[in-house]
Design brief:
Length: 340
C-alpha cells in the first residue's frame, strides 16, 4: 500500500515535469492564417475571449469539434476557429476522400466536424495513468468478479433485464464523413456494424432502441443531438473507433461530459467493455464533445479501439470482436440500470 502511494506520487511528479512534452507531441500543429485569431473559452462565437494570436503563430490543436479546435493558452483550455488556421503537418485522413484535402480548412470543418478524440490532452493522459494504477490496485478487489457473476445469472435466466428502457445508439460518422481511415478500413463502416449488434442485443433484453443512422448516410452532429433531445431516452451512446499517429497506442476510452449519471454510466460501461474484449483500459474521461455537451440524456462517446494500431485494426473489423464489444456495452447498461 505504501509502495503504491509512492508510485502514484512519483508518476504525478513525472507527469508534472514532462507536461510540455506530452502537450507538444500529441496534437495537430496549425499556423494562424488571419491577421488576428481570437481564443475563446468555449467553441462558439459568443464565448468569452481569452486572448489573441497574430498571423503566423503556431497553434497545437488537441480536440476538434464542429469547426473549432481546442488548445491551451496561459495554462487554460482555449478554443479557436479552425477556419482561421492553416495546417502545418500532413492531415493523415485527408487523402482518403480522394480529394486533395491537404491544407484545406473545409475538410476539417466538414468531414471531421465530429470530434475525433485522438487528442491526448494533458488531463486525459494524467487520468489514464491514474486509472491504470487504480486498475492494478483493484484487480483482486473483487469488483470485476462481482460484475461477471451478476451477468452470468442474468444470461442463464434469459431475463428481459432492460425491458421498458429506451436507448439511442449513434454509429459515428457516415456518408461523406468516413471518420478515421486506415488500410481501407473506414471507421464509419465498423461503427455502423457494431451499432447494429448492440441494437439486436438490446432488443433481446427487452429494450427499445433508436439508431441515429441505419445506413451509410451523413448526419450532422446537431441532428444526432436533436434526435436524442426529442425523445425520452434513458441513455445516448455514440460509437467510434480511434486513431493516433503513434501506432503503438491502443485500447478503449469512454467519454462523458456531465459529471452525474453520464459519468457513472461511463464507468460501468468502460469496466464491462474491457472485461469483454480484453483491450487496454484507457479509462473513462470527461470531454466537451457537442454530442455529449448538448445532450439532455446521460450520454457517452465510446472509442472501441485504435484502427491506427495494426493489431487492433485486424481485430476490430471482425464480427467476433464487434459482438464482444456489443455484449460489453449491453452488460454495462444492465449493471448500471439494474443497480438503482
Ligand atoms: Zn469517430
Amino acid at each position: 500500500m505504501k509502495n503504491t502511494l509512492i508510485i502514484i506520487v512519483g508518476v504525478l511528479i513525472c507527469l508534472f515535469i514532462f507536461q510540455p512534452t506530452v502537450d507538444a507531441d500529441s496534437g495537430q500543429l496549425y499556423k494562424v492564417n488571419v491577421e488576428t485569431l481570437t481564443l475563446r473559452d468555449a467553441p462558439n462565437q459568443s464565448a468569452t475571449v481569452l486572448g489573441y494570436l497574430k498571423i503566423g503563430a503556431k497553434v497545437t490543436v488537441f480536440l476538434q469539434s464542429d469547426g473549432w479546435g481546442s488548445t491551451y493558452y496561459n495554462g487554460k483550455e482555449a478554443w479557436v476557429s479552425l477556419n482561421m488556421l492553416e495546417e502545418k503537418n500532413g492531415f493523415p485522413d485527408a487523402a482518403v476522400s480522394g480529394e486533395s484535402g491537404k491544407g484545406d480548412p473545409q475538410l476539417i470543418t466538414e468531414e471531421n466536424e465530429e470530434e475525433e478524440p485522438k487528442a491526448e490532452t494533458i488531463q486525459q493522459y494524467k487520468d489514464e495513468k491514474l486509472e491504470e494504477l487504480d486498475e492494478k490496485e483493484h484487480t483482486t478487489a473483487g469488483i470485476t468478479h462481482k460484475d461477471k457473476n451478476l451477468e452470468g445469472q442474468r444470461k442463464q435466466s434469459g431475463e428481459k433485464t432492460l425491458a421498458g428502457y429506451h436507448f439511442i445508439i449513434d454509429p459515428g460518422h457516415g456518408g461523406k464523413d468516413p471518420g478515421a481511415v486506415r488500410s481501407e478500413l473506414y471507421e464509419k463502416t465498423i461503427t455502423l456494424s457494431t451499432a447494429k449488434k448492440v441494437d439486436e442485443l438490446l432488443r433481446d433484453k427487452g429494450a427499445s432502441v433508436t439508431l441515429t443512422r441505419t445506413d451509410d448516410t451523413f448526419i450532422p452532429v446537431e441532428e444526432r443531438v436533436q434526435l436524442s433531445n426529442s425523445t425520452t431516452a434513458d441513455a445516448f451512446i455514440s460509437l467510434h473507433y480511434n486513431t493516433f499517429k503513434d501506432q503503438s497506442i491502443s485500447g478503449i476510452d469512454t467519454f462523458y461530459n456531465n459529471v452525474d449519471e453520464s459519468q457513472q454510466l461511463a464507468v460501468a460501461i468502460q469496466r464491462s467493455l474491457v472485461n469483454h474484449v480484453k483491450f487496454t483500459n484507457r479509462g473513462s474521461k470527461q470531454a466537451s464533445y457537442q454530442v455529449l455537451r448538448e445532450n439532455k440524456h446521460p450520454a457517452l462517446l465510446i472509442e472501441l479501439g485504435f484502427i491506427s494500431n495494426p493489431e487492433e485494426r485486424k481485430l476490430v473489423r471482425t464480427d467476433t470482436y464487434q459482438e464482444k464489444a456489443a455484449k460489453g456495452i449491453v452488460s454495462g447498461l444492465e449493471n448500471y440500470f439494474n443497480n438503482d
